[in-house]
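Title: Comparing notes on inverse folding

I've been comparing how different people in this forum approach sequence design from structure. To keep things fair, I'm posting one structure and asking everyone to reply with a full sequence. Here's the target:
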């Protein structure tokens, strides 16, 4: 997320939380939390399904502790980013501004999350406990889809090597495309497999969670 809109976003999320913008959220007891972020691989039109074990959770905003692509070589040398997050040359993340981000927590913790697109849509996301095979089901309340609760300005992509270890490097990313224009995807990078994730903002957790 761009740092220059963080205060605007936080104030808007506070208003959304206070509004009880979804019937289920209004009935359930949620406590407001500092925004967390979910990396989702569900189809935009989906309202429920499986595969939540492939999703990740950022418990803190990865933007302020990210590292600019231009500073990659220093990050590679140190092996750690701000606040001590570990950089993995074979599994790294980029946002829409050209920041190398801390990886989210995998797998997605089971539970309920009050999620939003940061504008007008709010829903209760329920992530089930893993089944015997490790799969996790999920569902959104109030007839919302993943697209409804995806924060469009945030884009997030995960890069891993197509070949041998070390063959996929942030040094090969095209820095000139950042910040990405609205709707543009993070760039392909030579030697890398890229997976793009939708970003959902978490603004509340159940009381007692």
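Reply #1:
Here's my take.
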């Amino acid at each position: 997320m761009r740092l220059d809109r963080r205060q605007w976003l936080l104030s808007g999320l506070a208003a959304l939380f206070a509004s009880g913008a979804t019937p289920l959220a209004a009935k359930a007891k949620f406590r407001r939390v500092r925004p967390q972020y979910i990396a989702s691989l569900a189809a935009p039109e989906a309202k429920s399904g499986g595969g939540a074990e492939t999703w990740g959770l950022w418990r803190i905003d990865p933007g302020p502790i990210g590292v600019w692509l231009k500073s990659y070589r220093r990050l590679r040398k140190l092996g750690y980013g701000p606040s001590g997050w570990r950089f993995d040359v074979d599994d790294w993340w980029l946002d829409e501004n050209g920041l190398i981000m801390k990886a989210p927590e995998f797998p997605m913790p089971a539970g309920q999350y009050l999620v939003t697109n940061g504008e007008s849509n709010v829903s209760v996301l329920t992530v089930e406990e893993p089944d015997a095979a490790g799969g996790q089901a999920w569902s959104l309340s109030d007839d919302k889809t993943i697209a409804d609760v995806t924060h469009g300005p945030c884009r997030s992509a995960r890069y891993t090597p197509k070949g041998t270890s070390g063959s996929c490097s942030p040094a090969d990313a095209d820095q000139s495309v950042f910040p990405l224009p609205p709707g543009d995807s993070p760039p392909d990078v030579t030697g890398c497999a890229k997976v793009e994730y939708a970003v959902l903002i978490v603004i509340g957790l159940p009381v007692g969670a």
